[in-house]
Amino acid sequence: MTAVPLGIPRRGLEFTIDGEPVRVTEGSTILDACLAAGKDVPALCRGGPLTPGGDACRLCVVEVEGATALVPACSRRAEPGMDVRTGTERVRHSRRIVLELLASSADLSTTPRAAEWIKEYDARPDRFGPDAARLDEPPKVDNDLYVRDYGKCVLCRRCVDACGDEGENAFAIAVSGRGFGARIAVEHDVPLTDSACVFCGNCIDVCPTGALSFRSEFDRRAAGTWDEASQTRTDTVCAHCGVGCDLTLHVQDNEVVKVTTPHEQAVTQSSLCSKGRFGYQHVQNRD
How far from chain centre, in Å, is Cα 254? Predict the structure, then answer.
């Protein structure tokens, strides 16, 4: 029997969150610790294998004793002896302002929990007035697989990372422009079918606002028939090749409406190829 090296064990560390002692493994972020302790800290960029940017949405900021500025919990590593506060007035004020700025400039209607957070922090996006600049852009529907609705984009850049060196390494998209004119775009802003995009759809999986969505979901939402609450999820294995990627089939009205993969899956790490993510039509062929 071949011996399997165990590697260097990760040590534990202790600190406090809102006055309560917590213990996490070395390398954990403050957000990891908050979630493990049952603290509901809002964050748009949580989940998946991507490295948190820390400067994307700033919703997850917390107060750390001794720090002059609020710190992003998603990217700040926990340290022994830290004293973290997640609900101080300073923290709540910051989150309220961020929510107002995001919701006044972008459409957050398909962002999970956005309406709940706006209510919780008493944010008033309309206080900037009707003339506040908004990202009112028509959705880009130039292929049969997925839709880009940049009116819902908050420039978190997770899609850029998933397409780049933290995922597919296709580098088909990037941030273009400056200031309020900044956009996620392909080279020369050509249609997606003429770009370097390989249609893996991994950018959809990491998008936190619904700015990127399956064409099937987009069409059903437009028709008013998208009902996520009624959908069932079935875990299975992709049959297109021998790798054996884990799939989750989202089924509504006895039809597969989209395919995802568990983020914690060791083989895929939330990434799929174009066949795995979009090649499910043969499953429901009634002929």
Answer: 27
